[in-house]
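Notebook entry, structure prediction.
Reason for the run: the old model in the group folder had no record of what sequence produced it. Starting over properly, with the input documented here first.
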Amino acid sequence: MVGVKALLLDLDGTLAETEELHREAFNRAFREAGLPFSWDRPLYKALLEVTGGKERIAHFLRSFPDAPRLSEEALTRLHQRKNALYEALLREEGAPLRPGVRRLLGEAREAGLLLALVTTTSPENARAFLETSGLKGVFHLVLAGDIVPHKKPDPAIYHLARKELGLGEGEGVAVEDSRNGLLSARGAGFPVLITPGLYTADQDFSEAQGVAEHLGEPGHPARFLQGPRAGERGVVDLDYLEEVRGWWST
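New structure, fully documented this time:
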């Protein structure tokens, strides 16, 4: 019998590789606003250490002396425009789910696990992604954006998830792709499985209970880099989540 009661997942980089769509949306918003800069991949990778899109823009503007200074109102409008551009890109181009995501969510729902989406992206971005990916209505709980005063790596959003789902410490497993997500989930008492994304593969995940290339599919097995191995099938399933939980409790 699987003892895990809930599965909690991040969105960007975890459910799908959406960060390139976000980067393009930021750059289009900057061009529209006449701002004299563009974020390339190396710069964006560094900026992802700052969670939250508006916070990321503000951090960038503070870090570069020649960058224009924007009022709080202008910053909010710029971020809102970026989100609208991201939604348009998402609906035009799509963002395929990473291997194993749809399979594992289906297995978890069938087994009666609670499912939560726990993300720093805005509620609008989260809603657009769920609609375009076919995951609308799959999650019992969606927590996004500024629902808590401090974003990941602060554990506030995972503490809220525990409260809303009625979970005790260690009764759910979190799936994240970044160190900020790992620290957030661990801080609220969740064992963590990491599936590194495009921009996070070289981060430090030494505190995670497991690290897997992705969630795996039959015929498309994942490599398991840390924690329990998944046997011949090479997929993260409910039994594997229980192993991850066991590694956290020992």
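Summary: The chain has a mean pLDDT of 94.
The old model has been moved to the deprecated folder.
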